[in-house]
Amino acid sequence: MDETNNLKTAKPISPRSAAAAALASVFLLWLSGPPLGWWPLAMVALVPWLTLIAQPSAITRTGYLAIWAASTLYWLFVLQGLRHAHPAMYICWVALAGYLGIYHVAFVGLSRRSLRTRLGGRSLPIAVVVPVVWVATECVRNYLLTGISVAMLGHAVANVPLMIQIADLGGTYLVGMVIVCVNVSMAMMWLRFRGQEHQQSASLAIAISLSALIGTIGYGVVRRQTPTGDPLATFALLQRDEAVVYEQSADREIEIFQNYARQSVAAVQSSSRPIDIVLWPESMFSGASPWMIMADDAKVPEQFYDIYPEARQDPSLFRRTVDDRIDYFQQRAQQLQWMSTPTNQPSGPPNAADAANAANAASDEPATTNQIEPAGDEPKVGDAEDSRSVVALSPPAILAGCGVVEYDDSVGSYSAVVHIDSDGKVVDWYGKNHLVMFGEYVPIAPWIPGLRSLIPPGMGLRTGAGGKAMQIGDTIVAPNICIETAVERVAVNQLRELAAEGTMPDVIATVTNDGWFDDSSVIEHHLRCAQLVAVACRRPIVSAANNGPTAWIDSNGSIVKRLPIGANETLIATPRRDNRSSVYVQIGAIPAWICVLLTAATTIRRKPKQK
């Protein structure tokens, strides 16, 4: 009797059995990742699901619903930190978990359907089908509805260096595929032991998994033995535990800026080696005074006329006001740099107070609200060397997580990284490319009249125009913001485009504000994403985060140093140049999309022709 007849005559798998298998798999998956990180369990986590996939008996709709419910529960635990950001995020948290739960259902259903496809009169082997389908579901998840790469299977072994070096060949997809191969061999051995699977299927699965493991470890040994190059710029990575709320008052923004400014000054002054770049976390540099850009033909916002009716008779008032704000922003940066290295400024500090007075002449803010105040108790500097004070030859550059406001035919806001040189001048800026849906933008808002005015300020951000390569001394830095390391393709695609332009970055600098997520495991998941991105791009990553994760990751994905979550400290990092190329950067996710096409080809069946 063939498998088709078995499907028709065999008793369906009970919903209770499907639920038990699904709960077992998601529990093992959860144990393998943060917060516990028992990574060996990832090698068997899919086995309960695989026993369902391998059975010829049908899974009922109730059974699939049970699988979805178990998977949704898994994602609720994995992403529970999201609920801390805002009370409304409880709805988004549950909705996102329910959406992601669909992918495990798809994995089971599509794998079973592909196994029933015959090629040359034979069914496709489970040892080939299941890894391909798993990668296909992860690939679609990483693109559909803007995509999310958090908690991919490969992230379970982020702290196993030999297992993740293949990410420069196929990204986290390839690491996960190897883990799936091991799971298939384990499942086949178990089913063979119970007499439910042929020896041939088990032998093939074992052969594939052993080959994949040996190849992965061998490649990892070779790659890790490759020496890196000279030291790059020295970064001071700032971290504080500053409480944040969705709509923050100007006074609170200024307070946060002051706290970070004091820490920045202390870090540069107390470091045992000269600091080249100070990296501020996402939005912490704004201090109620974002960087502003104005087009030559910028339209004056109606809100400006509401505050200053005289501007209708004096059109230049708006431009003068914006110019004053621009001057103030740079004067504030100069003051910060002067306070960091006072002995290098014999002429004294720039008069930021004058700039503040000019800027505030057209605002309701007191002129002195945003001055950098003297330090009190200084935070720690996470430097392995002693804390001898050094005098830098020039003030450090600043890569500041900061808001940017652009005036053209309308008013646009960006989440950005602003590059301020050692003279306090803004040289360049990078606007966040990958925004958080319903967190930073509403997809349909631009096309519905009147809807944009109803959206809170933080949810109407513009998308930046591609990646940036910022030259600071001899180091080329690629800035990256928040979720962009949690969507693997963002950094990979940006580096490919920059390399084509002849400006391949030496290091990726990530700024983020994970204070939204309290001290939950979301922070650790974010860090693991960055580790795999470092290997995938073969570039070191330095990350400055409010609350964490603040870390220095080398180009092999290993954490060189990191700060404890919630610590008010500064990490000093000097990453090293890595001239190795990455196949994954060159070709991107093409192999993963091939898996999607293969899965589609084996699951979309033609109806047999009637005679």
From TrEMBL:
Protein's UniProt name: Apolipoprotein N-acyltransferase
Tell me which residues make up the CN hydrolase domain. Answer: 233-577
From the UniProt record, list the coiled-coil ranges.
Answer: none
Bias (Low complexity) ranges = 351-362
Biased region (Basic and acidic residues) positions are 377-387
Which HAMAP family would you find in this protein's record? Answer: Lnt
The UniProt function text for this chain reads: Catalyzes the phospholipid dependent N-acylation of the N-terminal cysteine of apolipoprotein, the last step in lipoprotein maturation.
**An example Gene Ontology cellular component term from the record?**
plasma membrane
EC no.? 2.3.1.269
List the subcellular locations: Cell membrane
Q: How does it sit in the membrane?
A: Multi-pass membrane protein
Species the sequence originates in: Rubripirellula lacrimiformis
- The answer to keyword Lipoprotein applying to this record is yes
Q: Which family does it belong to?
A: Belongs to the CN hydrolase family. Apolipoprotein N-acyltransferase subfamily.
Spell out the residue ranges making up region: Disordered: 340-387
